[in-house]
């Protein structure tokens, strides 16, 4: 049987996946590095400013990742066309994806600003509440260009052009750090805006990345055969609806996971500045390590989609599980690294001794879920390569809102109206235990789903056609 598992086949496919994934990885790390820079640079101003940025970033992250997932439909659409050799369909799909991005980006901007009303119901000081709300109001100007950028990002990676997204993300990171340095601390005679300076920097950076991507596509020969911006095209609603049907479940899937983490940030806020700051640092670093299996996953959408477009589901199955095993191997390494260097990680983010101590403790929980987090993102992306998006959505909703958040609230808040609760609230640690359990549930169910789907498609191809 073709594409059977042998060590040489695994090495060959792993090498192909890595060639596609490593520029995506560097680009993803640079993108997440913007958030790391925001938190780390603000952490050296004051604990109040760090708490405000942490809360504002929790809203921003939920909306940003949901937009990213909703725009991801273009990845599998273009990958299937590349595999099938129908390159002429790609420019139209990308143009319609940009129209979709306009609507998604504006809606996301409005929702992000409305979400700041949640801060009225938290136990926050007036200064922290005011700064967190202002952070979201300003940074939301970056959501429409971000949605358009993710449409072009998906198009580029699916035609095997991943180095441009790497270069543009590095440019964005450098811009973000420099403008943060100017505005957070008030260098070169500019006013010291604290956390608000991070919002200005990141919002502007989204526009810079969009224009840089458009310029690269215009100049690079690799895009010539499928260049989408050759002429004006009005929205084609059937095409947009089709991509929404494919993309919205991915957006909801991303929302289910990130909103659970974001809800935890909002709930932890009631325990004070030290708890929320330590929690946000541990979460921020975990999101950094998460970029590695996510990059494998983005490469998997392309590789699996192209294999299916070629009419080779056996190859798609082999590609999918190779990517899953690569992600799991990284999960083992990242867990060991977090356990060994958790104190150094905490000190790199903040100079506050109390925040450092609690952060090092929370990082132990982050180490626990490295394997399950790697497995769930790789399997869900592989499934999306099959253009199946609703089942991963249902699994993620169950895992995070059926397990992770309820268990976290039970352990973290210890509500007295339940028949049995911990003797005292476990605060941030209780919520992290819930997250570990939720990620494990997601990993198990998504692995089972990928196994059934990939095997069924491969076996269907082998069956003789009816007479």
UniProtKB/TrEMBL annotation:
Spell out the subcellular localization from the entry: Cell inner membrane
User: What membrane topology is given?
Assistant: Multi-pass membrane protein
Taken from the record, one Pfam family name reads MatE
Q: Where are the transmembrane segments?
A: 20-40, 52-78, 98-122, 134-153, 165-185, 192-217, 246-269, 281-301, 321-341, 397-418, 430-450
Say where the protein is mainly found: membrane
- UniProt cross-references to InterPro entries, sorted A to Z: MATE_fam, MATE_MdtK, MdtK-like
Q: Which UniProt keywords apply?
A: Antiport, Cell membrane, Ion transport, Membrane, Transmembrane, Transmembrane helix, Transport
Q: According to the lineage, what is the superkingdom?
A: Bacteria
Cross-referenced PANTHER family, in alphabetical order? FMN_FAD EXPORTER YEEO-RELATED (PTHR43298:SF2), MULTIDRUG RESISTANCE PROTEIN NORM-RELATED (PTHR43298)
Name of the protein: Multidrug-efflux transporter
